[in-house]
Amino acid sequence: MTPLSVIITIAAYFAILFTVSYIAGRKADNAGFFVGNRKSSWYVVAFAMVGSAISGVTYVSVPGMVAASNFGYLQMVLGFIAGQLIIAYLLVPLFYKMNLVSIYEYLENRFGISSYRTGAWFFFISKMLGAAVRLFLVCLTLQLLVFEPFGLPFLLNVAITVALVWLYTFQGGVKSLIWTDSLKTFCLVVSVVLCIWYIASDLNLSFTGMVSTIADSDMSRIFFFDDVNSKQYFFKQFLAGAFTMIAMTGLDQDMMQRNLSCKNFKDSQKNMITSAISQFFVILLFLMLGVLLYIFAANQQIAVEKSDELFPLIATGNYFPAIVGILFIIGLISSAYSAAGSALTALTTSFTVDILGTKGKSEETVVKMRKKVHIGMAVVMGITIFVFNLLNNTSVIDAVYILASYTYGPILGLFAFGIFMKQQVRDKYIPLVAIASPVLCFILQKNSEAWFGGYQFSYELLIFNALFTFIGLCLLIKKDKKNN
């Protein structure tokens, strides 16, 4: 694709995106920005959630990872479904009962202000890093396709990208996100299905021939039960998927603000179950695409140095009709920008409500504060993306889950203790526990092979992180009988 065709494609998409965002978010007040006035239809949210769970990282990295991991990622996706069921039937009724705007308000009610601030700050760090990683990937692709050919620096690329995200989330918040996520889901599914169809046609494969070719490939193996020390071992992946879903969706303001926009908790449960099952099949499409891309690359003798480069290299490399490159760009920007927009909205909500505080302040004051925070979050996100560009040395999807293992663990441990234990704890010491747990996990991960006979920690490190936090809270239980 030429740089001009990429620019035209992005401009056309954003024209539609801004129109949808404006119509959905017009006249939105603070309640509309934060929780969508709790008037969203569950089936609309379910459709939107399919796309909201799939970022630019998934779009680019999942097809490329089949060479190293086969279809093993589906083991984790099955865990995602289990985690989604736990969220739907345990957390959602609780959050609706408490009528929460920010889910971290639960920690203040349960423990105290230190726990509340700790949860909010860990979410802030987690979401900012995760959003930066995801948006970094789209910036890299745009740098390759647009900015480098014109001799423009990466810093300008980041500034323009973040500015666009800020613009379309500025007015409507969650109300806009649900409808823009619906647009994203549509673009995402259509682009992947058509890319599969074009590549299969080029390989002279009918539908049954394509399915047979993928099934016969060594890259289509799903289940790994043979080596407990392997990172691909089924129970590691499944349990990590379940707990990652609970942490990164159920305890994540970004994802839960959509679910909490439904009319009641039963509608929210319908939305979550429907979207979880749908996401499984969408991820399966990405993995099928990955096998076809590797087969095509082998036939064409295309050298792929990094797995994240596979899909962009082939889709935009003039190997297919121009429509394939256009579909790739639409899918990438719809997934990446939407994910970044939802993260920016959630960061604005959490920082305004949880860290600065809105209690006792007028609607007008909160609006002014929220708009300033929104700008500040965009600036911090841009800086974080630029720094990550200087430090990046790993697969981006791997980086996302590694970060999640360290930053979401304390949040998961806090909520688990709060829900399953009745005792009160010494609230002022909770930040120390939340910091110590990731440090212990880092030490454990670095020494696991030497200490445990070659055992390698994968994303199940999140579970140990939460467990350390839970144990730390047990040590902080107040001994006063009246608090037991």
TrEMBL record:
CDD domains recorded: SLC5sbd_NIS-like
Database matches in PROSITE patterns: NA_SOLUT_SYMP_3
Membrane topology recorded in Swiss-Prot or TrEMBL: Multi-pass membrane protein
Biological process according to GO: sodium ion transport
Record field: transmembrane: 6-25, 41-61, 73-96, 120-144, 150-170, 182-200, 233-251, 272-299, 319-352, 373-391, 397-417, 457-477
GO CC, one annotated term: plasma membrane
This protein's record includes keyword Membrane: yes
Keywords linked to the UniProt accession: Cell membrane, Ion transport, Membrane, Sodium, Sodium transport, Transmembrane, Transmembrane helix, Transport
Pfam families cross-referenced by the UniProt entry: SSF (PF00474)
Localization per record: Cell membrane
One function term, GO molecular function aspect: symporter activity
Family: Belongs to the sodium:solute symporter (SSF) (TC 2.A.21) family.
Name this protein carries in UniProt: Sodium:solute symporter
Organism: Bacteroides muris (ex Afrizal et al. 2022)
